[in-house]
């Protein structure tokens, strides 16, 4: 398979973002977003997905984090779509359960070519370290719309909001790692009865 890398730049009046991904990396992340808790979550994707991420974002944080978080999701989704290419030879589906102390989350992903998000998460607090956790849904919505994936995110239990969020992102990274894995028996084959994704 060819190198599965991509870099996408997105510039608007609200944000300037560059996202580079290597789907066959070692789990390293270089993150400059101005939003520390989001960076902590993005690092989970890299480490648990064995995906190299390099994200630089400058946004209108003087207003709030919304535009920057959403646009990082959009730009990252575009980079994943470009890096995965025609999807021939990949597993396509991935799932993971990840615990952190009392919290447990499940994430299931399908590189279906169709955007869809089901986000069943009730956070126990509204913020962590000043970060509005409602924005995580905006991040994932931006990602699925532009990566063209179907994504189910379920926080099954948890009392600590930090733990809830971290289990979601760890499970997301692990599910991504499974879905993007190459199956030698499917070399050159699109994993769909339609013949295209």
Can I get a quick summary?
By secondary structure, the protein is an alpha+beta fold. It contains 4 helices and 10 strands. It has helices at 36-49, 66-84, 135-147, 161-180, and strands spanning 5-11, 15-22, 29-32, 52-59, 93-100, 103-110, 116-120, 127-128, 131-132, 150-157.
List keywords for this structure.
alpha+beta, Ribosomal Protein S5, domain 2, four-stranded mixed sheet, 4 helices, 30% strand, amino-acid biosynthesis, ImidazoleglycerP_deHydtase_CS
Blueprint of the fold:
Blueprint: E1 5-11, E2 15-22, E3 29-32, H1 36-49, E4 52-59, H2 66-84, E5 93-100, E6 103-110, E7 116-120, E8 127-128, E9 131-132, H3 135-147, E10 150-157, H4 161-180
Parallel strand pairs: 3-4, 7-10
Antiparallel strand pairs: 1-2, 2-4, 5-6, 6-10, 8-9
Helix pairs in contact: 1-4, 2-3
Structure overview:
This protein is an alpha+beta fold and 197 residues long. It has one domain: Imidazole glycerol phosphate dehydratase, domain 1 (Ribosomal Protein S5, domain 2, 2-Layer Sandwich). Helix content is 34%, strand content 30%. The protein has four helices and ten strands. It has helices at 36-49, 66-84, 135-147, 161-180; strands at residues 5-11, 15-22, 29-32, 52-59, 93-100, 103-110, 116-120, 127-128, 131-132, 150-157. The strands form three sheets. Strands 1-2-4-3 form a four-stranded mixed sheet, covered by helices on one side. A four-stranded mixed sheet has the order 5-6-10-7. The protein has a two-stranded antiparallel ribbon with strand order 8-9. A hairpin with a 2-residue loop joins strand 5 and strand 6 (103-110). The chain starts with a strand and ends in a 17-residue tail after the last helix. The mean pLDDT is 96.
């Amino acid at each position: 398979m060819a190198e599965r890398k991509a870099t996408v730049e997105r510039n608007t009046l609200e944000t300037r973002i560059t996202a580079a991904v290597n789907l066959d990396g070692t789990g390293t992340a270089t993150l400059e977003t101005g939003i520390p808790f989001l960076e902590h979550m993005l690092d989970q994707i890299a480490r648990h997905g064995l995906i190299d991420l390099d994200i630089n974002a400058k946004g209108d944080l003087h207003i709030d984090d919304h535009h920057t978080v959403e646009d990082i999701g959009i730009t990252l989704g575009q980079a994943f779509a470009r890096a995965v290419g025609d999807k021939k030879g990949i597993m396509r589906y991935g799932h993971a359960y990840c615990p952190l102390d009392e919290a447990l989350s499940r994430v299931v992903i399908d590189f279906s070519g169709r955007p869809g998000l089901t986000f069943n998460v009730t956070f126990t607090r509204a913020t962590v370290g000043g970060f509005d956790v409602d924005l995580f849904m905006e991040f994932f919505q931006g990602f699925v719309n532009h990566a063209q994936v179907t994504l189910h995110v379920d926080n099954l239990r948890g009392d600590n909001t930090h733990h809830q969020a971290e289990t979601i992102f760890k499970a997301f990274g692990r599910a991504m790692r499974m879905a993007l894995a190459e199956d030698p028996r499917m070399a050159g084959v699109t994993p769909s009865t339609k013949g295209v994704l």
